[in-house]
Amino acid sequence: MQSPMARQTHKNIVWSYINLGVGILAPLILIPLFTRFLGRQLYGEYVVITSLSYYLGLANLGLGQTIANRIAAAAANRDHAKVGTLVSTAFYSLTAVAGLLLIALLVLTPLLWSALVGRPDPGARFAFLSLFALSLIAFPLKAQDMMLRGYQRVDREQEVWASSSVIRVVVMATALFAGFKLAVVATIHGLIGLLSGLGTCLLAARLSPAARPRLADFSLRLLREMISPSIAFLVLQLSSALATRVDNVVIGYVLGAAPVTSYAVPFRLMLMAILLFTMVLNALQPTITAHYARDKRDLLRKAYSFFTRLALVYAVSAGVALWLVGPQFIRLWAGPGIYPGGLVFGLQVAFTSLQILLTPAETILWATSRHYIWATIALVEGGLNLGLSIWWAHRWGLAGVIGASIVARLVTNAWYLPLAASLTVGGSIRNALRQIAPGAGLAVIMVAAAGTLSMVAASVSIVASIGLAAGLLIPFAAAFAWLGFTAEERRLAVGWLWPAAIAEP
Q1: Minimal CA–CA distance to 140: which of 105, 168, 103, 99?
Q2: What is the rounded CA–CA span in Å between residue 83 and residue 91?
Q3: Stretch 121-142: mean pLDDT, rounded?
Q4: CA–CA distance from 467 to each of 307, 316, 353 (Å)?
Q5: What span, in angstroms and rounded, lies between the C-alpha atoms of 84 and 104?
Q6: Whole-angstrom Cα distance, residue 42 to residue 47?
Q7: Residue 499 contacts residue 283 (beta carbons within 8 Å)
Q8: d(CA 469, CA 150)
Q9: What is the C-alpha separation between 168 and 357, in angstroms, rounded?
Q10: Where are the alpha helices (DSSP H) in 118-226?
Q11: Fewer Cβ in 10 A, N or C end of the chain?
Q12: What is the C-alpha R_g of the chain?
């Protein structure tokens, strides 16, 4: 019989996938409407503005993840009195940051606007200001969101996000059909984000009175203690932004807004594939933190080994499916003229598979706060990617941008992350290679078969391409399940039973 922690972990995973399902449906519905009602130019500007808004998350200075990890550790050790101090310290610190950023936004936007976005339509500046101002109002509510994660109530967080996504789709689709343009669409985006923050705040308040911040509970001493790990998390967030999120900004700056659409729409498809795998690991982060705080290395070692092999089978399967079916799907989904060409798309698929393979290692280091060296290497990766992207975008266009991301990742974190994660859980590199070897052999055969059949997939209907991909993937998955996992792992994986393996026995 599953323990309460196992049942909660399972619930977290289920709700994470419900949110993911809604998150997949949302762009499937909205992107065709964006490209048709806004056009490539305006939608490109919208992508640039929302890409810039991602950097607002960096303003939490890494405090969010530090708070989540500390709350999870405190809950695991039943130190509930500390939670109120953590939440209040985070809330008032983020409020101060948001106030300073709001002033900077109003002062600096007129000065930097042309450098950031170029010369878009007149409503773009209002769209930018509206989205950022609303996001800043919601900014302090991240403290309650992190409290939910720290208490392992990821299910409630995901419930709020899924509901917000449904509302966003309905309201945005209505606005687009009514003829509204960029300013209204961006304002809707910001308002729904604020609504989501208020929802998590209310749920956290129902969970514990500690969710209600009190100025008396603010602790300057605690804030000082969290500076070091928070700065390292901030460096990781900044590096991630430079390694991936900066691409749309570079393309808009070097090539113009219209090519952003050709790059961003296929990459959105890639992000859906990545999220399908990373969602389960994100839901498990508080559980990993709790077990690490209790020194349950054996459970973490088993979980890391399992998810590393699961990442391999999924990365290959997702890559093959995208390569064989993706081009035709993009033409039907987003309309003609959006597909960026075989070279760019193939490089995006390769980057997607690489990111999936590294996700288990990232999760271990993120949840255990063993992220200091990773932060330094990631900063090197981000700077290298930014420099190469600008250089290669001038030389090779879109292919140069995604090629820079792959090269930067391979020479930095692609080798460091698996090594660091194995050391954190007390694993052996030799044992890990021995366990993954049968699956790796199958993966090589699978990639070779997909490459051979790619020309066939391009010349038939999308239904036939889906059938061709399924004909390859089903036997591959079955063979991998037999050779790549133990009988015990197969038993635990069936019927969503895996969370019980890493929960409290």
Answers
A1: 99
A2: 12
A3: 81
A4: 28, 17, 21
A5: 30
A6: 9
A7: no
A8: 40
A9: 31
A10: 123-138, 142-150, 154-177, 182-207, 220-225
A11: N
A12: 23
pLDDT digits (tens, 9 = 90+) for 79-88: 767 888 888 8
Assigned token pair, 450: 């997909």
Segment among 4-8, 26-30, 71-75, 160-164 with least mean pLDDT:
4-8
How far apart CA 110 and CA 424 sit, in angstroms, is 47
CA distance 6 to 235: 33
Q: Which residue has the tokens 């923050």?
A: 197
The candidate with the shortest Cα–Cα distance to 118, out of 262, 259, 264, is: 259
Cβ neighbours for 503, distance < 8 A, ≥ 6 positions apart: 2, 3, 5, 6, 9, 287
Alpha helices, H only, 425-497:
429-459, 462-484, 487-493
In 3D space, the residue among 62, 94, 425, 364 whose CA is nearest the CA of residue 229 turns out to be 62
Judge contact between 87 and 214, C-beta under 8 A: no
Q: What is the pLDDT of residues 207-252, one digit of tens each?
A: 888 888 888 888 888 888 888 888 877 777 777 766 666 787 788 8
At position 341, the amino acid (one-letter code) is: G
Return the structure tokens found at 323: 């390569």
pLDDT averaged over the chain? 83
Three-state DSSP at 156 gives helix
Residue 336 burial (C-beta neighbours within 10 Å; 0-12, 13-18, 19+): exposed
Q: What is the pLDDT of residues 21-79, one digit of tens each?
A: 887 788 888 888 888 888 777 777 787 777 766 667 667 777 777 887 887 777 777 77
Calpha distance 157→139 (Å, rounded): 16
**Integer Cα distance of 501 and 505 in angstroms:** 8
Q: Are 258 and 41 in contact (CB under 8 A)?
A: yes
d(C-alpha 47, C-alpha 183), whole Å: 13
CA pseudo-torsion sign 271, 236, 351, 340: positive
* Paired tokens of 495: 């019927």
**Cα dihedral sign for 410, 267, 272, 476?**
negative
Work out the burial of residue 110: count CB atoms within 10 Å of its CB; fewer than 13 is exposed, 13-18 middle, 19 or more buried. exposed
Q: At how many degrees (to 10) do helices 182-207 and 142-150 cross?
A: 50
Phi and psi torsions of 304, nearest 5°? -65, -40
pLDDT, tens only, 413-423: 999 999 999 99
- Max Cα-Cα span within the chain: 68
Length of the chain in terms of residues written = 505
For the whole model, what pTM was predicted?
Answer: 0.71
Q: How far apart are CA 405 and CA 393, in angstroms?
A: 12
Residues 71 and 150 sit within 8 Å (Cβ to Cβ): yes
